[in-house]
Amino acid sequence: MSSERYNPRDAEPRWQQEWEKHEVFQTENDDPREKYYVLEMFPYPSGRIHMGHVRNYTMGDVVARYKRARGFNVLHPMGWDAFGMPAENAAMERGVHPASWTYQNIASMKAQLKVMGLSLDWNREFATCDPAYYQRQQHLFLDFLEKGLVYRKQSKVNWDPVDNTVLANEQVIDGRGWRSGALVEQRELTQWFFRITDFSQELLDALDTLDQWPEKVRLMQKNWIGRSEGLSLRWELVNGTAGDAAELTVYTTRPDTLFGASFLAIAADHPLARQVAATNPEVEAFCEECRRAGTSLAALETAEKKGIDTGIRAKHPLDPSWELPVYVANFVLMDYGTGAIFGCPSGDQRDLDFARKYGLPVVPVVMPKDGDAATFAIGDEAYIGDGVMINSRFLDGLSTEDAFETVASKLEKETFNGTPRAERKVNFRLRDWGISRQRYWGCPIPVIHCDDCGVVPVPKADLPVVLPPDVTFDKPGNPLDRHPTWRHVACPHCGKDARRETDTMDTFVDSSWYFTRFTAPWEDNPTDPKVANHWLPVDQYIGGIEHAILHLLYSRFFTRAMKATGHVAIDEPFKGLFTQGMVVHETYSRGEGAQREWVTPAEIRIEEIDGRRRAVLLETGEEIAIGSIEKMSKSKKNVVDPDDIIASYGADTARFFVLSDSPPDRDVIWSEAGVEGSHRFVQRVWRLVSEAAENLRATEAAPASEGEALAVSQAAHKTLRAVEADYDKLAFNKAVARIYELVNTLAAPLTQVAAGKADAALAGAVKDATTILINLIAPMTPHLAEECWREIGGEGLIAERGWPAFNPALVVENEITLPVQINGKKRADLTIARDADQSAIESAVLALDAVKTALNGSSPKKIIVVPQRIVNVVV
RNA sequence: GCGGGCGUGGCGAAACUGGUAGACGCAAGGGACUUAAAAUCCCUCGGCCUUGGCCGUACGGGUUCGACCCCCGUCGCCCGCACCA
């Protein structure tokens, strides 16, 4: 009888070596079994893995191990999203080269992942900064370029005038550059774009086919694509108010509210605004101010609504005698629609705020169906809903929908200067994807600029265009620009001196096809289409909700673009998507305001005195304030290092904990007590199994059909069925709860077996149940499962064994207990044969004491019998 | 600002398609074992009223025989917003 504690420090490396030796997790592309591709979003090599990674990769690993047991040929690869700004920041701050910084980080993070015991095929590993990877990305770029899916246009960037560098949105803090503190300007640069908008409608329509995606993600993408049906409408400008310009085209989705219009507004970058600004210093100043506001939409829209009158006047399309002012407004975007709107203050909150600020009229034109036209008025809130038209002349009394139709039909038939006054137009909010980055640590864009030949693609034979290693980061700006030789190159066309493109690609490009590359990472071409088409789509993709829009939408576009260029034959890259929640933790701090200092969880101890929790600094005993629970972050110091956890409890405990308690799509709160609970479970399973092991080894597994052993077999097989369903749904927390229940049920019988007090039937049932238990925990705590399996005399590795099948006879009940309600409140239970018919149930219910008392002699109004569920007696 | 989500005991949660609210775990309290501690095992554990009942799923309404679940409104918190990944 063994009673040693389970020692993960000994067991875990041992089983990891065993798996490696047997190449259990290496995947063959030509394996005949049905394929299953499970993938977690690959990490950015920041240096250390964090608990979010542990949770993400554990979930993927459970799916991979479970599906492998279910007989699938599983592909479960891992790689590194290795380009990006942090490497350049490290280079600037510490003088370390981005490449060596990145590869060192990869080495240490890989070591951390290895310790977790993940069932990954490391043979397919790559980093996106490997020239072997980005060479194929350049190949794809050239194919896209040839296909017309890439183009150049002018576009704005955040410009730091002191550092002379382009800033990312996150580097702009309160309108200033994060390092220089200079007021950020916007600059126009010629940049590269992918034509994602060519696919707007298709990307929208295909969302309906993604039935294994969370509804909320599909909705978010739908809103992001933002299809709207509206009217492109031309307004005549009053002669002489706008120089030579005679008209202004606005896009509107609400032509029905035209009689509520009180102003027109144009973007600061609208040609008309520029024209006015040229002669009007005030408008010029305002436009400048708008440009300084930054490129982020959030910044724009949270800013106070402001504008300035351009002096231009426009004639109302339905009443030429009605003149409206044209403003430049900070909330109108040049990229959307036509960069000009008409403002209807009663029907749009922004327009209302704007009108109140500048004293413009507010005429209600839509009121709720049951409203009173005489008294309906707009206060501080616009009425944006549907309803009935008022104050709208010939539209009065129509529904919003009919008014839209009436106005649209009327105006599209009218002409103005010989062409239709208005045109129905489908508009998308989605913009083309700008991929140019004025940075070093990214995939070089493989083109050459020649004075004579223009933009010339780098011939494929010359790929990869490799980043020069000898660069400096002592000053801001793009090191590729100031490299002494790199950008000088002969034009591939005419041979004359020419210049390389020094922009590199957005790192979202790297992550838009890595899942395809994993299917054949050794291929000379970007893909082996046959292999890619076999493995794709990814059956289960798992990652953070923060990627709900950009990464996933870009990948959906990229897959279509790769299809158009013959690299794959599919449209959708991810069949199943799961978005997991974050790992959050309490925060601890001392001091207040600017003096506030954050303290790491490792530096404190939690005490509970008289029901009050307090945190105490280990070193000094000083009391530390317990703050709110927040996403683990370096700045708040509320991080727990997975290495520390694994070192003290082992990987299985860490894995089990991140799957326990919280539903996987919700945040999980990391707590020391919770980890200890998981660790107790690991120890408990080991103790129960190992103590009984000697006797179990000598016993054949045999589910029982009667007596006390039957309950053991029923519990095991029911749990097997339930956990199977939970794993299929990725409901790991529920699987954990079921497994706890099973272990609780098995505790006494296992102890009996250990003491040699079990009869043959019970011993056989316990052996069967224990085997099932080991299979159930194997995906979550694989090392413990192997250790238990060997201990009870199992053959081979659990990681290579098939999933057990539950015995249908053991999971059905012949009798069921129905709750009995009286007037919707539970008052009694009724135990009755499972197949009892309605009348049998009714008479049994009426015979119950509680029901007799409630009825007090009278007969019930109604008896509702929901088969297999509940009975409700209405008295 | 716009878009999306979430809200259930002291805490994390469960509750199938509208059908027993609180499974399972954590924390806490009590007990057993121990010289003692740890570990382990057993019991209690939403609130209020003395047993039986009443109240209770953020808050206020509604639909229903029956609502954590559906509808309307309010409040609070979180995420995304196109150059962070």
Overall residue-averaged pLDDT value: 89
Which regions are unreliable across 5 or more consecutive residues at pLDDT < 50? none
Number of strands: 37
Distance between the termini: 61 Å
**What is the share of helical residues?**
25-40%
Oligomer: single chain
Shape by Cα distribution: globular
Largest sheet: 7 strands, mixed
Strand content: 15-25%
Condensed summary:
This protein is of the alpha+beta class and 875 residues long. It contains 26 helices and 37 strands. Strands 8, 9, 10, 11, 12, 13 and 18 form a seven-stranded mixed β-sheet that branches. Strands 28, 29, 30, 31, 32 and 33 form a six-stranded mixed β-sheet that branches.
Q: What report would you give on this structure?
A:
This protein is an alpha+beta fold and 875 residues long. Helix content is 36%, strand content 21%. The strands form ten sheets. Strands 8, 9, 10, 11, 12, 13 and 18 form a seven-stranded mixed sheet that branches. A hairpin with a 2-residue loop joins β5 and β6 (176-177). The protein binds one RNA strand of 85 nucleotides through α7, α10, α11, β19 and β20.
Question: Secondary structure elements and their pairing?
Answer:
Blueprint: H1 8-21, E1 35-40, H2 51-69, E2 73-75, H3 85-94, H4 98-115, H5 131-146, E3 150-160, E4 165-167, E5 172-173, E6 176-177, E7 185-194, H6 200-205, H7 215-225, E8 228-237, E9 247-252, E10 263-266, H8 271-279, H9 281-292, H10 297-302, E11 307-316, E12 319-329, E13 340-343, H11 349-358, E14 366-367, E15 388-389, H12 400-413, E16 415-416, E17 419-420, E18 422-427, E19 433-434, E20 436-437, E21 447-450, E22 454-457, H13 479-482, E23 488-490, E24 497-500, E25 504-505, H14 507-510, H15 514-517, H16 529-535, E26 540-544, H17 550-564, E27 577-580, E28 583-590, E29 597-599, E30 604-609, E31 612-617, E32 623-631, H18 642-649, H19 651-659, E33 668-669, H20 672-697, H21 707-728, H22 732-754, H23 760-777, H24 782-791, E34 815-822, E35 825-833, H25 838-846, H26 849-855, E36 862-866, E37 870-874
Parallel strand pairs: 1-2, 1-26, 10-12, 26-27, 28-33, 34-37
Antiparallel strand pairs: 3-4, 3-7, 5-6, 7-19, 8-9, 8-11, 8-18, 10-13, 11-12, 14-15, 16-17, 20-25, 21-22, 21-24, 23-24, 28-29, 28-32, 30-31, 31-32, 34-35, 36-37
The structure holds one RNA strand of 85 nucleotides.
